[in-house]
Amino acid sequence: MLRETNPAVLRKIIPIEVDYNTYDLNIDRQTLERLHGEVQIVFNVVASVKFNESLNDAIQINFLGTKKIVRLALGIKKLKSFVHVSTLYSNCNRQDIDEKIYDHILSYNELIPVAKVIHNLKGRVNAEQFLFQNLPNTYTLTKHFAEKLVYHQTFSMPSGIFRPGVVTPSYKDFPGYTDNINGPTGVVVSTVQGHIHCIYGDVTKRANLMPVDYCINALIATAWDIHENYQERLRTCSNIPIYNHMFNENNLKWKELMDLVPLGFHEPLQNSIWYYSYFIVRSKIMFKILHFTYHTIPAFIMDILAFMIGKEMIYRRLNAKTEKILIIMSFFGLREWNFGNRNIQMLVEKTKNFSYQRGSFDFDMRKINWTEYFRHYIPGIKRHYFKENTNNVKRLAAYYQWLKRIHVTFKYLVYFLCSRKILKIFLAIMGKNFVKYCVK
């Protein structure tokens, strides 16, 4: 949009090459002096969002990366606001999560020494349980400790911590825009393309989705609020503010999310191999059974076909990766949290009258029309992430409807064969006398 309306403003952006593997980010002296002398607002958004990142890599990126940015920000002379972007799930080992820092058995200074000890141990299970304290993965663990670091080292700065939910494609600004398919968006895409049919989760739990434009609006608003309240915070020796950007009201449940996805099927994705169909199950045993039936067996068949036509057999390997991802994500799909959001609610009230040339500056999740949102969800992913051609939408829509007819036909055929089999078993058990009785 800026390229069309005001391309000159993009020339004000000055990219700086840094090396996060070095102590000082490897920023040259002249650039560092300019940063210290001119920058006024810092958003620390750099992080690895991989749930299965190795502990060492997650510490290097999410914890030490934050420490280096904090060190850089402490030298900025005109700093008006420092915002550390965390996650709603940095304390997901608790059910009730307020806008505050929660204790861990370790201080943030002890994370790296303990992690090194655990790495050198042969039997690490008990030691890792001690470190993780029921946090499910290295992402949530290192984000938890990064919060503690920011909380203790930036007290003298105009600083705050912003906790967004599960960031998804845009709602109002460029509807459907996204540059990644991380988290549930990746699962939805694989389900739409027919690769996933069974999801391990609970249909009744809240999904905590957050359109990226609402997330960015809230992030900018928190930077303003941090600056506005800084002097008062110093005067009263108050803690740095934390913003949980989520509302329980108008918060979609997983079943509602999946049921709304077909609203965007007027522009389906390419490379679909089956129609959109899914189960969401909360039993791990049932998930294993259905995963084997709907994912593993088809992957085995696809690899046989690939072998026969001389192509690489990749489907069983992809199936194993899919199972791992679904199990990792099940921690969030099987649980529900209560988030305190007093600071965000106050910020919504403060910024009600904010407006810009592009329209409202909104981040109140309670006002989202999810039906409108999901009309652009799949088309946005199609256009902006996959960069797919939209000239053949009618032909692709017809193909997707053809897949639907095959799916429905196959489903009822299975029902028919199963019902006949069940009837035969029933009659064999009941015997001929039951048939004679029915005839009479």
Instruction: Tell me about the largest β-sheet.
Output: 4 strands, parallel
What low-confidence regions span 5 or more consecutive residues with pLDDT below 50? Answer: 434-440
Indicate the percent of residues in helices. Answer: 40-55%
Question: How many angstroms does the end-to-end distance come to?
Answer: 77 Å
Topology:
Elements: H1 2-5, H2 29-38, E1 41-44, H3 55-74, E2 81-85, E3 96-97, H4 111-120, H5 125-132, H6 138-153, E4 159-163, E5 166-168, H7 184-192, E6 198-200, E7 209-211, H8 212-236, E8 242-244, H9 254-260, E9 279-281, H10 284-308, H11 315-333, E10 338-339, H12 342-350, E11 355-356, E12 359-360, H13 370-375, H14 377-385, H15 393-430, H16 432-439
Helix pairs in contact: 3-6, 10-11
Explain the overall architecture.
- With 440 residues, this protein is α/β, with parallel strands linked by helices.
- Helices cover 51% and strands 8% of the residues.
- It contains 16 helices and twelve strands.
- A four-stranded parallel sheet has the order 1-2-4-8.
- Strand 11 (355-356) and strand 12 form a beta hairpin.
- Helix 3 (55-74) packs parallel to helix 6 (138-153) and helix 10 runs antiparallel to helix 11.
Name its key features.
16 helices, alpha/beta, 4-stranded parallel beta sheet, single chain
Outline:
The protein has 440 residues and is an alpha/beta fold. The chain is globular and about 85 Å long.
